């Protein structure tokens, strides 16, 4: 050791300890790391004579001797560390010559206590003392059990990710039954047993606990159902419950941590009735950190569906996660009165907790209502979708009809139209008539073949044959073809909007832009009935040619025009000068009464239902690069600056306008600079990723706007502006207020479709065969199934450390 003395060292807790005091057993490592301290310079004794001894013409160093310059004393480190009694060299032997230190050192090293302490030091260094052996053995056993626990946690993660059940039959979960492969032990234990065949560590653990459990059961005087108590196996339902609970809590903690990193957030809520007739409220939080995120944070069993109760439930959820409800800047719900009621709805009560929050009626629900209204506006549209649904129901009613269908069709089923989802009408229409301008993709000819075969067959009853004939006749009508093509053209514009509104992470600006473009497109098409007629004629020609190829009877062909109807004339009474109404052509009548009515209805409904929040949308229009204009009106951003005052008292509409004007001037250069780095990022995408993987990336990375080529950002949308400001640190000083505006806009939620996704998972997890989950466990399973990325990033060590604190027995088994 060098000649610079340190007077203290740190123990295991970080506390400073005097180097020359008797150390605790836990500090021996730090103590001997410092000692022996044997300086040779600037000492008032002969270091060679003190530090070394001669025996049989050989020189040996006294490793036990240490010296303190501050105290000018010698100490025996071995007696300090392992001795039970004090002596001259534990209290300090002064180095002055008057004390004859060399003689005292020789006397000390011959004492029996010192010799025993030297042996204790040798045992310590070789780790052969009883305590060390026990500690090492226990440490190994704890490490082994923790390794087993790691495997069990990974199994629970797999079960939670896939939304599977984990319990088995009532009397098949006990450890003593695990050697019986004929029993249903449940997914958790079955996966454990499967992995134990290939994992030696897990096999050793399973074999050991099975043997112990069987021995314990055989020695019990009274046999009872279930497993014998008092045996810690790690394979019980209790351990699985502990893991599920800790995973759920850690996931919610991680989500709350991410939300706190953002300045504000929005809420999406919706409720549904589960299989146990409980009203389950799904609470989704949307926030912007590095990305745009939408996370499920709770599933609440609602005791009351009033707006106040819903608000109380949401506030309690936020409180449990230490989130401030006043940081909520908006909410999105469906159109139910208890949600958006002006006085007692959820949004009204949330306004009291978080003033100035913006409530948005879910765009997806609004679009759904618009399309439902449109498809029911006239008799022809009702007849069309009623016909399509009747065909599907007719075929599915009997296995004989289904066999006939399967013999004629290259597809296996026909879609039934749902009552509440308009996209079900689009799906059914597309399956029958194909996509717009591409009839060969549809099942129209297959359906006619099937229905005619049923009609002409002797196997079916007269009633069935008659119904088949009626369905065929309706399909062949010219009116049916024209009406179908009207809605095919409408769905071409509306379906992409609907799909985007159901995407995770979608932003309000892009949704609003798509809706505006859809309205514009539909308005342009609203008086172009001739285009519909032209495409309908092509479809009719294609269908008749296909029926000629299949040699279908000539009596069955698609009509190419409306039937001529006799004009009714009223008898003219003597002296009456009123003439009959002028003759109206059937094509013109259809255009006026069907085509124009349908288009007028959808355009009017879209404009009316999406007309709220006009101030917000006016401000949004100035932020989109596509519409950048340096001439920003003086009233721009007054509404938005008012909303953002609570997060930055200094923000004003004028400051936002100034920063936006400067940003607009520099945007062409900024986006060109950013283009290179974006290309590098996109080039790192795996070239071998399949279609399924690409779909997952698309759904979960909507903050990353890609151009049509898919290799670089479009640099023409609000997401690109936000990413550029964030990436190049322009949000700290240069465009701090503008960045806050962009972040506010991206945080706003205009749908609560993620709640619908939650309910789809809920029906899968909680079903008729699995309906006894407690509310907490149901919530944990649902979060694991939906927030898979967070689940797989949870550190297993954190789970084990938390579980080890649940009981003394678990602490002894798992705590290092």
TrEMBL record:
Pfam family name, one: DUF4371
Name listed for the protein in its UniProt record: Zinc finger MYM-type protein 1
GO molecular function: protein dimerization activity
Domain DUF4371: 146-345
Organism: Schizaphis graminum (Green bug aphid)
PANTHER family: DUF4371 DOMAIN-CONTAINING PROTEIN, PTHR45749
Residue ranges constituting the HAT C-terminal dimerisation domain according to the UniProt record: 723-782
Record InterPro entries: DUF4371, HATC_C_dom, RNaseH-like_sf
């Amino acid at each position: 050791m060098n000649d610079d003395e340190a007077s203290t060292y740190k123990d295991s807790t970080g506390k400073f300890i005097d180097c020359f005091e008797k150390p605790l057993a836990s500090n021996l490592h730090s103590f001997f790391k410092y000692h022996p301290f044997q300086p040779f310079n600037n000492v008032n004794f002969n270091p060679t004579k003190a530090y070394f001894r001669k025996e049989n013409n050989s020189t040996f160093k006294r490793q036990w001797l240490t010296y303190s310059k501050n105290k000018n004393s010698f100490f025996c480190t071995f007696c300090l560390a392992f001795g039970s009694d004090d002596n001259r060299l534990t209290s300090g032997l002064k180095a002055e010559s008057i004390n004859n230190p060399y003689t005292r050192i020789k006397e000390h090293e011959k004492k029996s206590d010192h010799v025993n302490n030297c042996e204790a030091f040798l045992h310590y260094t070789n780790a052969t003392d009883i305590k060390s052996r026990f500690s090492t053995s226990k440490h190994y056993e704890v490490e082994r059990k923790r390794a087993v626990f790691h495997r069990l946690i990974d199994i629970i993660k797999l079960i939670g990710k896939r939304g599977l059940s984990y319990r088995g039959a009532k009397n098949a979960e006990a450890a003593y039954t695990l050697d019986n492969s004929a029993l249903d032990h449940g997914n958790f234990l079955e996966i454990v047993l499967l992995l134990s065949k290939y994992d030696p560590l897990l096999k050793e653990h399973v074999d050991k606990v099975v043997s112990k459990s069987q021995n314990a059961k055989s020695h019990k005087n009274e046999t009872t159902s279930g497993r014998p108590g008092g045996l810690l196996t790690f394979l019980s339902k209790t351990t699985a419950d502990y893991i599920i609970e800790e995973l759920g809590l850690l996931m919610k903690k991680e989500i709350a941590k991410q939300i706190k990193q953002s300045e504000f957030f929005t809420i999406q809520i919706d409720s549904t009735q589960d299989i146990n007739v409980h009203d389950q409220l799904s609470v989704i939080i949307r926030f912007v950190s590095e990305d745009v995120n939408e996370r499920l944070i709770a599933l609440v069993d609602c005791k009351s569906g009033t707006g106040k109760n819903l608000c109380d439930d949401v506030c309690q959820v936020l409180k449990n996660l230490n989130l401030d409800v006043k940081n909520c800047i908006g909410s999105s719900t469906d159109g139910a009165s208890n949600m958006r009621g002006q006085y007692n709805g959820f949004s009204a009560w949330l306004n009291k907790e978080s003033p100035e929050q913006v409530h948005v009626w879910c765009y997806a629900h609004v679009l759904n209502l618009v399309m439902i209204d449109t498809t029911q506006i006239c008799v022809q549209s009702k007849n069309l979708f009623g016909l399509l649904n009747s065909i599907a129901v007719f075929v599915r009613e009997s296995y004989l009809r289904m066999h006939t269908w399967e013999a004629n069709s290259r597809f296996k089923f026909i879609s039934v139209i749902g009552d509440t989802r308009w996209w079900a009408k689009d799906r059914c229409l597309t399956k029958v008539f194909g996509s717009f301008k591409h009839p060969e993709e549809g099942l129209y000819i297959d359906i006619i073949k099937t229905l005619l075969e049923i009609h002409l067959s002797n196997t079916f009853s007269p009633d069935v044959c008659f119904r088949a004939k009626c369905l065929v006749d309706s399909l062949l009508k010219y009116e049916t073809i024209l009406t179908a093509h009207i809605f095919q053209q409408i769905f071409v514009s509306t379906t992409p909007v609907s799909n985007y509104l159901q995407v995770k992470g979608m932003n309000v600006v892009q949704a609003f832009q798509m809706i505006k473009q859809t309205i514009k497109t539909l308005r342009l098409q609203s008086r172009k009935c001739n285009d519909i007629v032209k495409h309908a004629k092509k479809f009719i020609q294609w269908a008749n040619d296909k029926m000629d190829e299949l040699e279908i009877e000539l009596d069955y062909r698609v009509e190419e025009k409306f039937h001529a109807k006799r004009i009714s004339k009223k008898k003219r009474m003597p002296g009456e000068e009123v003439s009959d109404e002028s003759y109206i052509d059937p094509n013109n009548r259809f255009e006026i009464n069907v085509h124009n009515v349908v288009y007028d209805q959808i355009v009017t409904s879209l404009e009316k239902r999406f007309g709220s929040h006009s101030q917000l949308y006016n401000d949004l229009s100035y932020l989109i690069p596509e519409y950048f204009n340096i001439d920003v009106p003086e009233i721009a951003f007054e509404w938005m600056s008012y909303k953002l005052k609570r997060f930055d008292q200094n923000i004003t509409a004028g400051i936002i306008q100034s920063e936006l004007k400067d940003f607009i001037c520099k945007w062409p250069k900024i986006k060109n600079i950013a283009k290179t780095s974006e290309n590098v990022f996109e080039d790192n995408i795996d070239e071998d990723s399949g279609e399924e993987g690409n779909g997952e990336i698309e759904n979960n990375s909507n903050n990353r706007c890609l151009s049509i080529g898919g290799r670089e950002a479009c640099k023409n949308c609000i997401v690109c502006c936000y990413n550029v400001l964030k990436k190049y640190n322009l949000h700290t000083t240069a465009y701090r207020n503008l960045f806050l505006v962009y972040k506010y806009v991206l945080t706003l939620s205009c749908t609560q479709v993620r709640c619908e996704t939650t309910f789809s998972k809920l029906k899968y997890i909680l079903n008729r065969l699995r309906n006894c989950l407690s509310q907490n466990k149901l919530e944990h399973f649902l979060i694991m199934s939906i927030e898979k990325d967070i689940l797989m990033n949870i550190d297993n060590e954190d789970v084990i450390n938390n579980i080890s604190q649940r009981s003394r027995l678990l602490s002894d088994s798992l705590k290092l």
